[in-house]
Write a structure and sequence with these properties.
The chain has one domain. The protein is α/β, with parallel strands linked by helices. The relative contact order is 0.14. It is 47% helix and 11% strand.
């Protein structure tokens, strides 16, 4: 039945009788000028400095890395690794809208129009102006223009400034963080980067198990609820929803979203940027320097 409906819509659309709803609102030239004049994205170094200061000063907060996948899921569209549905779309919107002190929100806006770091190119953390404006069209009302962070801080530095990347990873390891992420992460990588505390998540469609994941994380945090704790999250787009849920519960915690650099450390070339950076073998050399 659904296939028949889609064929009818396609025929009607061809004759101009039915128009597919455009999910991307249009940005006027006036709005575009305003955005280019007011948006400044923190560099990778600045992003990690702000995060490190927050953790060092035991401030509750989170580094929330919103990418194109998160935006698609918010709009009810599938991501590469996650199938969307209404409940997840609603929660993703809540996560993107979430406001509190010390939330380091990052969006995929590094572009010619809004600025980028040296070395960024197409498929290497640089998005097109068209895409940057599309993403802003549906998120600008949720963004603090003066506090936009890069979502690829670790990824960029792992390629272009490994010393800074290693310094931050050492700092993060010293916080003895709880890790919430891929069940297939190799034990030696877990021990090298984080701690023995691993709440396991599926490799895809992790939202399907988010209630179980949240329950396990809450139980772990409750063991030391009077102490400031750090949680590293690496479970794809639904990780931002988990961050939102935990923050709303009021835990004394900072939640850091790690990203696809962890895939490279786990010998998985899951992203084109990893290949362009020399592949997992080259990026894994960072792990050998953490001792």
């Amino acid at each position: 039945m659904e296939l028949i409906k889609n064929k009818i819509k396609a025929i009607l659309n061809f004759y101009g009788i039915y128009k597919t709803k455009e999910i991307w609102p249009k940005i006027s030239e006036k709005e575009k000028l305003f955005l280019t004049q007011n948006i400044k994205i923190r560099s990778s170094i600045e992003t990690l400095i702000d995060i490190q200061n927050s953790i060092s000063n035991k401030k509750i907060g989170a580094y929330m890395r919103f990418g194109d996948g998160d935006i698609f899921l918010m709009l009810g569209k599938d991501d590469i690794l996650h199938q969307s549905h209404k409940k997840m779309a609603k929660e993703m919107r809540q996560a993107i809208k979430y406001k509190s002190y010390n939330i380091h929100k990052a969006f995929p806006l590094n572009s010619e129009l809004f600025g980028y770091e040296e070395g960024m190119t197409s498929n290497m953390h640089l998005v097109s102006d068209v895409d940057a404006l599309k993403y802003l069209a549906v998120t600008e009302s949720f963004i603090d223009f003066k506090n936009i962070y890069t979502p690829v801080a670790l990824h960029y530095l792992a390629t272009f400034n490994q010393e800074a990347c290693i310094e931050f990873l050492r700092f993060l390891k010293n916080t003895n963080p709880i890790f919430v992420g891929n069940k297939s992460l190799k034990p030696e990588v877990l021990r090298k980067l984080f701690s023995e505390k691993h709440i396991k998540t599926p490799e895809a469609n992790s939202y399907n198990e988010i209630d179980r994941i949240e329950k396990e994380l809450v139980a772990e945090l409750d063991k030391n609820k009077n102490v400031f704790q750090v949680v590293v999250v690496a479970m794809g787009c639904p990780g931002r929803i988990l961050q939102k849920r935990i923050l709303k519960k009021g835990f004394n915690v900072y939640l850091f979203d790690f990203g696809s650099l962890l895939d490279a450390f786990n010998d998985d070339n899951t992203r084109l940027w990893i290949d362009l950076a020399g592949g997992a073998v080259k990026l894994k050399s960072i792990l050998n320097k953490l001792d």
